[in-house]
Amino acid sequence: MSRLESTNANNENSFDPTPKLKSSPIPILFISFNRLQNECSYCGNEYSVTVLFNQKYCKICLIKYIENISDNSDMYLDIRMSTNDIRHNKNETSRNVNFCTQNIQENKKVQESENCKLCGKLFPEQSCSFKICPDCYQISHGRLKSTLTKEFIPILCLPWWDNCNICINCKLSLEFISDCQKWCSDCFATYTGCRYCLTTNIIFGNTAQSQCKKCNRLLSFITITYIDSENFDIEKFLASTRVILNRRIFDSFVKDLNSLEIYDAFFRFKNDYYRYKSSVKWIRWIPYSRITNLEKIAEGGFSIIYKAQWRHFNQVEYYKKTVIIKRFLNSWDMDKYFLNELKSLCNYKYDADYIIGCYGITQNPETKEFMLIMQYANGGNLHDYLQENFTNITWEMKLNILSHIAMGLLVIHARNFIHRDFHSGNILLSKKSGQRWLIGDLGLSQSANNTLLNNEIYGIMPYIAPEIFKGAAFSKESDIYSMGMIMWELTTGCKPFASIRHDANLVYEIIDGERPEITHDTPECFANLMKSCWDSNPSERPSALEVAKALSSIKATNDLQFYQAEEKRLELIKLKKLGPEYTGKSHSGAIYTFRLLGSRITNSLFK
Question: What is the CATH number of domain 382-606?
Fold first, then answer.
């Protein structure tokens, strides 16, 4: 059992969840904290089961408890029981009369009562799934300051002994640490009970102790190893993301509900909370043994991409899910880039419609390399899609594609982040439930206020804004420049500046205002938006929100332009003047792989 320490009973923060009852002078050991447990933890006797609620208890420990109570006047438990088969002597009768509830009762049928057995009042009309007297049993919720992180984490305080074996937060099985402590290894919710008051605290975060609301005893937790990754930074990060996510979800949910409604919504698997909670998944540690059938599909400057199968448990059974494994090469600075991408992916978990999803991380036990386990976009990247389907992609389809991309960029910028490596190879198509374009590869994504990575220029030269080559920091505006290049790529099916060498001369031309030639079928309204995105002056470029709004409005307000543009597009394709198959071969010096271009553009780059 967890160590229990007495504290000042007159604590000013004290709140009595069961005002009609007293705290027991000795621990109450005859009730199990695990409804699936069959034998008593203390004497080994097989548990009996109550008629009402099917709660397990030990007869032998119950008798010992009755025998050891020294105070006959106070009421400690809300219990009504039949003693037909419990042997007792005549001196025990006065003690038994104080047990006046229906929680534990044998050998006779219990009829559901309409009134509280403690105060006699009728149960009020309630929408919840169980009857409870709000005067005698008071649920509370609030914030607890973690003794480990010093942050405030949500807590739900129950005025009863919770013996459930399923987490009310994520509906997975709980792990039992002691006879009054259990926790969920998925969401890190911790349950701790006070055996002097039979109350339960449910804490949605990590702390070393909590406090019984009734008797103010400190309930110290046994140390729990949350994740076994052999890397402290990763373990700390994964644990903190779940705590933060729990706090966000809990806070957004509880603001319009009272404590009883909160617990009822948890308990009944209903209401907006469960739907909201089910839609948000955190990044988790995934054992490498669950990853099979790795198939290499791509390799970049600092990582290798595999298609694989993940043996995943969905609360009912195991099934295989196709995923992408991103393995970072040894030359990649894990602390700076692996964790950076992990943190970026976590930031966008609420907006999975437009950002590639990340399920978790794993580690090869032999090589010790860490890997990201990510959503598999079965439609490939935007560039390959354009290469294969360009002639069939109408102007209406182009606008729809760009609208998805703009919304994804808006999600990133709304979080006050920047992408820094925004190009068609990092835009992926998911064909699950229709078609949706997602932004991926967030390894260089960072806070707009963070200049940690701005001393290095990584990326693909034609997509990098001119001010970056002149020494400016990456910014939201530089992402918008890249958006302009992606818009142009939609009009041609080709990557920008494919016919020339990517060297210092191209850098000079980009700085001097050189941009790709606009095709003859491009509507004027579209061309104007594209040119504003790649404007040489960053302050003249539109925001991601303005781009998204413009894309949604230009089609509605320029039907004639797009009708004429579609006719012109088909004419140019028929004349073999438009499309990747009619474009000359790319220059051998045109490099579209991710690479280090320099710590700013130095003299060495121009040699």
Answer: 1.10.510.10
